Amino acid sequence: MGLAENQLSFDLLESWLAKNPDVAGFKSDGKSIFRELALFQDYHGLPSFKKALVDFMAEIRGNKVTFDPNHIVLTAGATSANETLMFCLAELGDAFLLPTPYYPGCVLISSSRQFDRDLKWRTGVEIVPIQCTSSNNFQITEAALKQAYQEAKKRNLRVKGVLVTNPSNPLGTTMSRSELNLLVDFIKDKNMHLISDEIYSGTVYNSPGFVSIMEILKDRNDLKDCGANVWDRVHIVYSLSKDLGLPGFRVGAIYSENEVVVAAATKMSSFGLVSSQTQYLLSAMLGDKKFTKNYISENLKRLKRRQRNLVSGLQKAGISCLKTNNAGLFCWVDMRHLLHSNTFEAEMELWKKILYEVRLNISPGSSCHCTEPGWFRMCFANMSEETLNLAMKRLKTFVQESNHDNGCTAKRVQSSRRKSLSNWVFRLSSREHREQEQR
């Protein structure tokens, strides 16, 4: 339950492949194009695939926005896309602001956190957290933004931008229009960049719906005549790893209206290209509009049904999720009431019990830089329904036993207190009796 993979709609992909054997066999009009695909292709990517990809991105967003295939850069997954943008936008020692909690990236807890790795390891860019709390369902506030910016200044860091994941990993929520407008106003005022990682944009199964940062820019008339063009400082990261469930295909992308960023990122993409065979296969699949329409609809239905199963199972165990959960392949789960103290040490003790005794691998909030102990991320789309039911059964048993043990401990403490009080009263009565006899 610690791996954010979407395995719920593989049958739809496999069915399409079975109906289109020529594509999987690298044929076009019945003739093999294997040799053509095996030799060097344009490093910019196959035009047919770039066109199919931007059309798919628009379809996921309800065709409220469109994307120019000339402004997209293909990368070997979103990891490569995020790192490439760091190289393009920042220098060694510069900083980006990220709202907490953010992308953990580790199945088991370790000192390695994914965005820390993706953004920092080779680029030398620093991350400064925007501290968000459960008091407003972890939404970004103006005060939190300003506090993070001032914290960076205290550390003598030059802030180059803000990076957000929308929908959020690990929260499983979409950002509101007010949050997105707040971010646009912030980068406009500070003359910095905004990266919107929209890798989960096709996993929004409940209202409110998904709003892309591109939609916000399109609706903001005040940005059109802005001296420092905000459009040039907003960049989108996307991948087919979550929406199509193809992390092994390593298909990611950067979309930017900034021609300098696109040119630089295109040069850097030669260090992490997407194979021509992969592009050919996916251009045919995504180009099948009947298939993509059905896939998007059916995939959301399955995600919604599976999320309901998880929430229901947790509720039966006396555990709740973040109420605003409406997207993603996971839920942000509140287990604060199971902590013996409000500390991250207690969170780690609980996590170890769930891992080693219950045999469930979930991600503790501390691995996501959450500021409040007791929150956990639970993934639900990488397993069968039977496995999920078993996991909920185990968790319910664990909670019941924990409550029983806590109840027994409380009774022992209470009994001990009563016994101690009785001894004290007995000693007091005996002393008073002796004093009366002496008098």
From TrEMBL:
Keywords: Ethylene biosynthesis, Fruit ripening, Lyase, Pyridoxal phosphate, S-adenosyl-L-methionine. Its EC number is 4.4.1.14. Gene3D superfamilies: Aspartate Aminotransferase, domain 1, Type I PLP-dependent aspartate aminotransferase-like (Major domain). Pathway: Alkene biosynthesis; ethylene biosynthesis via S-adenosyl-L-methionine; ethylene from S-adenosyl-L-methionine: step 1/2. InterPro entries: Aminotransferase_I/II_large, Ethylene_sulfur-biosynth, NHTrfase_class1_PyrdxlP-BS, PyrdxlP-dep_Trfase, PyrdxlP-dep_Trfase_major, PyrdxlP-dep_Trfase_small. Residues 1-395 form the Aminotransferase class I/classII large domain. GO terms for molecular function: 1-aminocyclopropane-1-carboxylate synthase activity; pyridoxal phosphate binding; transaminase activity. Homodimer. This is 1-aminocyclopropane-1-carboxylate synthase.
